[in-house]
Amino acid sequence: MALSCTLNRYLLLMAQEHLEFRLPEIKSLLSLFGGQFASSQETYGKSPFWILSIPSEDIARNLMKRTVCAKSIFELWGHGQSPEELYSSLKNYPVEKMVPFLHSDSTYKIKIHTFNKTLTQEEKIKRIDALEFLPFEGKVNLKKPQHVFSVLEDYGLDPNCIPENPHNIYFGRWIADGQRELIESYSVKKRHFIGNTSMDAGLSFIMANHGKVKENDIVFDPFVGTGGLLIACAHFGAYVYGTDIDYNTVHGLGKATRKNQKWRGPDENIRANLRQYGLEKYYLDVLVSDASKPSWRKGTYFDAIITDPPYGIRESTRRTGSQKEIPKGIEKWEKCPESHVPVSLSYHLSDMFLDLLNFAAETLVLGGRLVYWLPVYTPEYTEEMVPWHPCLELVSNCEQKLSSHTSRRLITMEKVKKFENRDQYSHLLSDHFLPYQGHNSFREKYFSGVTKRIAKEEKSTQE
């Protein structure tokens, strides 16, 4: 592949989960740190081995300080589809680029990494010995080497059909590892305050990366729940703020979600979650508020809006009502003062997402990003269903399957145009508007599918 002489080639070793989320995360992070993802990059689809052209090692290191989708990155010295091709490629790699890491005062070690195949120790040593033609002058140090080099062999994706020889072989200098350990250290299982729909830690960090959240940003979540997304954004140095319509959740009151615990404790709340991870200084506030009626002055406040709206499955979709919307004939409302309307109404999904996009278009800074989950009934899903707004540009659309017939899509949009009053209703003139209505029956379709699956399983057990 012809590459610009100003760009270095790097090999990314990707994690084999959330496959659709990997490319948007890497693109977003490269953009955040001054790089660019060219169309000529080699990503190899579902393969864990990606070759990228990155302007500098500093950008490569910054990328790895953020990514949870990549395991490691290497400066690529050679690549081939056979050992002979690899050795030929290594012999053509500029010696002046090798010398700083191979001189007599340095220490090093060589590691062998295989994907979809296990090698014996004898086979590994044989591969290391075959590299003796490289100008290594330093000493081997297996415990604390200054430089680590790796041979990485790719045996394909099918564990039931492992080839005798690898499809691709790579050799490179290890640069840095990704942030995979965050998934465990921020695990919801260890978290002080959780709810029925607390976001998985890995996905929370992926959402923050898709949103290009960075130090000193102000990030908002209008459906904050127990604050899992705020934690991920605060970890990257952003100041976080949120709202939720549920008073008990915001104040950490009511029944506990954990097994064998009846009521939430006195210090079981969102602020305590951030305190648990040493992130309390990034906590601005969380308010009880209705996302359908935001009480904000006109202006651009947020660098990113990262959120997981309720789908009506485990958490209901609600909004506050008005006096006109109270059903007639309900006597209990007569006991309430005129100034108080204690009622909540169903909040159609299509309305919720249109309100969310309008809110993002109004309050995001130019270049700010909206990242949210869109639930879909898979058999009826088309790309036209993704909500549209004239001020927001679609950046990525990734699927996570929930069941055989439902999924949710992580939508990332970027504000590209200043909001004007006429933009608030421009979606009504768009051909995209009607398909949104299909989202309103997501709950019924979801439970219809569950009912059918249970009936099918019962029938098969009876037979």
From TrEMBL:
tRNA (guanine(10)-N(2))-methyltransferase TRMT11 N-terminal domain: which residues? Answer: 9-180
Mainly resides where? cytoplasm
Q: Name one GO molecular function term.
A: tRNA (guanine(10)-N2)-methyltransferase activity
PROSITE patterns recorded: N6_MTASE, SAM_MT_TRM11
Keyword tRNA processing on this protein?
Answer: yes
Q: Which UniProt keywords apply?
A: Cytoplasm, Methyltransferase, RNA-binding, S-adenosyl-L-methionine, Transferase, tRNA processing, tRNA-binding
Q: Where is each Ribosomal RNA large subunit methyltransferase K/L-like methyltransferase domain found?
A: 190-320
- Name the InterPro entries for this protein: DNA_methylase_N6_adenine_CS, RlmKL-like_Mtase, SAM-dependent_MTases_sf, TRMT11, TRMT11_N
Q: Which reaction does it catalyse?
A: guanosine(10) in tRNA + S-adenosyl-L-methionine = N(2)-methylguanosine(10) in tRNA + S-adenosyl-L-homocysteine + H(+)
* Record localization: Cytoplasm
Q: Which GO terms describe its cellular component?
A: cytoplasm; tRNA (m2G10) methyltransferase complex
The family note in this entry says: Belongs to the class I-like SAM-binding methyltransferase superfamily. TRM11 methyltransferase family.
Quaternary structure and interacting proteins, as annotated: Part of the heterodimeric TRMT11-TRM112 methyltransferase complex; this complex forms an active tRNA methyltransferase, where TRMT112 acts as an activator of the catalytic subunit TRMT11.
State the function annotated in the UniProt record: Catalytic subunit of the TRMT11-TRM112 methyltransferase complex, that specifically mediates the S-adenosyl-L-methionine-dependent N(2)-methylation of guanosine nucleotide at position 10 (m2G10) in tRNAs. This is one of the major tRNA (guanine-N(2))-methyltransferases.
Per the UniProt entry, the Enzyme Commission number(s) are 2.1.1.214
Note whether rRNA processing occurs among the keywords.
Answer: no
Protein name per its UniProtKB record: tRNA (guanine(10)-N(2))-methyltransferase TRMT11
Gene Ontology terms describing biological process? methylation; tRNA processing
